[in-house]
């Protein structure tokens, strides 16, 4: 694992604006796994989309309306969800909040 960053500390990493008006920062990644923090203002939307990566998400703060494959639920701080590969999914922030997403394999499109 020489050269692979295996620890991240609070506040590390720069926030990057996302195309949908939110923000993200990559916390850690290897070829097999990536952890990314997303920040949303109240009313912020993560537009419906799909990708080949399996995604596991944790609601670190706030309340979100989460839609996966046509099914919608409201999740709050401490809740989580999984998005299997290629399913259409998206979120709406019902209040300001943060999601911590893990992707396998890593999202090459998130690495500068």
UniProtKB/TrEMBL annotation:
<dbReference type="InterPro" id="IPR011051">
    <property type="entry name" value="RmlC_Cupin_sf"/>
</dbReference>
<feature type="domain" description="Cupin type-2">
    <location>
        <begin position="38"/>
        <end position="95"/>
    </location>
</feature>
<dbReference type="InterPro" id="IPR025499">
    <property type="entry name" value="KdgF"/>
</dbReference>
<protein>
    <submittedName>
        <fullName>Pectin degradation protein KdgF</fullName>
    </submittedName>
</protein>
<dbReference type="InterPro" id="IPR013096">
    <property type="entry name" value="Cupin_2"/>
</dbReference>
<dbReference type="Pfam" id="PF07883">
    <property type="entry name" value="Cupin_2"/>
</dbReference>
<dbReference type="InterPro" id="IPR052535">
    <property type="entry name" value="Bacilysin_H2HPP_isomerase"/>
</dbReference>
<dbReference type="InterPro" id="IPR014710">
    <property type="entry name" value="RmlC-like_jellyroll"/>
</dbReference>
């Amino acid at each position: 694992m020489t050269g692979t960053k295996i620890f991240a500390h609070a506040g590390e990493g720069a926030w990057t604006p996302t195309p949908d008006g939110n923000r993200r920062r990559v916390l850690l990644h290897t070829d097999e796994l990536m952890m990314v923090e997303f920040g949303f203002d109240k009313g912020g939307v993560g537009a419906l989309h799909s990708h080949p990566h399996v995604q596991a998400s944790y609601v670190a703060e706030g309340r979100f309306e989460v839609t996966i494959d046509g099914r919608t639920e409201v999740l709050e701080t401490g809740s989580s969800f999984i998005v299997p590969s290629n399913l259409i999914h998206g979120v709406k922030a019902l209040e300001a909040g943060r999601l911590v997403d893990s992707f396998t394999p890593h999202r090459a499109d998130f690495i500068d």
